[in-house]
Design a protein that fits this description.
One of its GO terms (molecular function) is DNA-binding transcription factor activity. The structure is a single chain. By secondary structure, this protein is mainly alpha-helical. It has a domain of about 60 residues: Arc Repressor Mutant, subunit A (Orthogonal Bundle), CATH 1.10.10. The chain is about 50% helix and about 10% strand. It is built from four helices and three strands; from the N terminus they run H-E-H-H-E-E-H. The protein has a three-stranded antiparallel β-sheet with strand order 1-3-2. Helix 1 crosses helix 4 and helix 2 crosses helix 3. The longest helix is centred in the C-terminal third of the chain and has 15 residues. The protein is globular, with a radius of gyration of 19 Å.
Length: about 90
Amino acid sequence: MSRCSDRALLELLAERGPLQVTHLAAALDVHPLTVTQRCDALQSNGYVRRVSADVFGLTEDGREHLASLTDATDSPELPDPSNSTESADSPE
């Protein structure tokens, strides 16, 4: 099983609309209880809403939050100095 990220949950809800917990869990390859716990946390932040007992949907705040997560991920990354191709012992 993989980790259930908020971004992955929000992306699924944005793409497919309101979904049952079991469908979310299957798509994310996680246990339904994990999905319920993440959705409850996202609901407390206003990013998802419970449509029925086992169905969650994305809110407008959730769409905006997802966009901010996507924008942050799409921004260029700074190079990692630990991955430098030059050796400290190389002559200059």
